[in-house]
Amino acid sequence: MKVSIVTINWNNKIGLEQTINSVLSQTFTDYEFIVIDGASTDGSDDVIEANKDRIDYWVAESDSGIYNAMNKGIYAAQGEYCYFLNSGDVFASNNVLSDIFKHDVKENFVCGNIIWDEKGKLRKDDSYKNRDWLFSLYDIYSGFLCHQAFLVKREMFDAYGYYDETLRIMSDWKHFLIAIGIHGEKVQYVDVDIAIYNTDGLSSTIGGKAILAEKRKVAQEELSDQVYKEVDRLYYLSRNGFVVDFVHSKKWIHFLFKVFLKICLTLRLTKL
Question: Can you give the pTM of this predicted structure?
């Protein structure tokens, strides 16, 4: 089986129905569909019951949070790749999976484009298209990767751990940081619009300070003290330094500065 589609839900009946309809409308058939519901009380169980003949595995029981629910989906997954499409999110078209697997998909991480649903206004994000993944530690630390844009080989969770359930909002980011940023797992881009991502979710609304606090906690645990301080300092400078504004204003200086940073980080990583 090629892919396990995992949908988690808690008290989002309308969103769950939209997501289920989107999955079941895919023209690609080599997938299994897993639904993990956190004991919803809004009638979500009726939606699951109405579609249970086309859902390969589902549970409706209390959980300890988003990542506990996602881990339940991983444990149940039998596909080569895992893909998480949470309730309220939908595939960008009925041919998304077919379009992805028309490519010679083989790397442990496969990504495409995401469409942001910002209160009904759709905005396409194809920023992974020309991404340089070779030295990605700083890029991941200073930004984030949208899991709705990624298919992850099931074995990556055995290799680098399941989602950290002690984190509230950045556990999927942690998995990317460890696997791609630290261990250099390859990322394959396919020029496919994968999902329309509903930005009303927790990580989109909780605020930057909470996100940065979890990022720093993870980085301090996973990186040497020297490397952590270096990437955090560079991140601070990129957000607050007037020098960086000048560097960005001059394309040739910006290019040389990025090369310099990547060389520095490479030298640091060799000392880990």
Answer: 0.86
